[in-house]
Amino acid sequence: GQQVMQIPQYQHVQEGEDFTTYCNSSTTLSNIQWYKQRPGGHPVFLIQLVKSGEVKKQKRLTFQFGEAKKNSSLHITATQTTDVGTYFCAGPQFSNSGYALNFGKGTSLLVTP
Amino acid sequence: DTGVSQNPRHKITKRGQNVTFRCDPISEHNRLYWYRQTLGQGPEFLTYFQNEAQLEKSRLLSDRFSAERPKGSFSTLEIQRTEQGDSAMYLCASSLGTGVGETQYFGPGTRLLVL
Questions:
Q1: Given a cut of 90, is residue B107 above it in pLDDT?
Q2: B40 in contact with A at a CB cutoff of 8 Å?
Q3: Could you tell me how many CB contacts below 8 A there are between chain A and chain B?
Q4: How far is B17 from chain A (nearest CA, A)?
Q5: How many angstroms separate the CA atoms of A35 and B91, rounded?
Q6: Do B101 and A48 touch (CB under 8 A)?
Q7: Taking the CA of residue B72 as centre, how many other CA atoms within 13 Å lie in the half-sphere pointing to its CB?
Q8: CA distances, B107 to each of A30, A34, A86, B5, B26 (Å)
């Protein structure tokens, strides 16, 4: 079945440093979504990418969808302590319905001041 | 608060007991999902409803698990004869049903511990 893999599993940065997490799928995705989960919290939707090669920005966050629609990345510029949490990418669980999500294991980001 | 709510937030039970969790989605959302999340993992899909119809089930959903959404509003997830391996966070999410890739809004989850 489809697998969504994320690297790295953990990342520890000093405040102000940049951070990138990568997501790779074994199959072509119709879309990919990114979620953030704070420690003790629940996943919160960040963004959805649909088009091949798409790039979207949200303030210090830049999201990319690969040309082959099998990989994606999230880059945070100049991290802040508020960026702490686990970042998940998710693709459609089933190719025929696409409604349920298949999450990667996430990248846990720790930012020290 | 008009977000997704789940009750209870925490549940401790003994192995072999039955437990039931409730999810109240955002009121106008017609799609409702259940996921399970264990430590260090991403949420794993369990099942999905569109209105009152249960349309998808994961193979993770053994016959000890049953979910209902009788009136297309709130949903319940029941686990019968709980096992220690059922210990996890059970997350509910809802969406508006506009198409593939729509935003899912997650509730705070019910954390289950089976002793």
A1: yes
A2: yes
A3: 66
A4: 26
A5: 14
A6: yes
A7: 8
A8: 25, 17, 17, 5, 10
Kindly state the DSSP code that residue B81 receives in the 8-state scheme: S
The answer for residues whose C-beta is within 8 angstroms of residue A82's C-beta and 6 or more apart is none
Structure-block tokens of residue A93: 């669980």
Mean pLDDT for each consecutive 10-residue tract of chain A (113 residues)? 87 98 93 95 95 97 97 98 97 68 95 95
Q: A82 φ, ψ to 5°? A: -70, -10
Query: How does pLDDT run across B35-46, given as a tens digit for each residue?
Result: 999 999 999 999
CA distances to A29, A87, B10, B80 from B64, rounded to whole Å, are 32, 31, 20, 5
pLDDT tens profile B46-84: 998 999 999 888 887 889 999 999 988 999 999 999 999
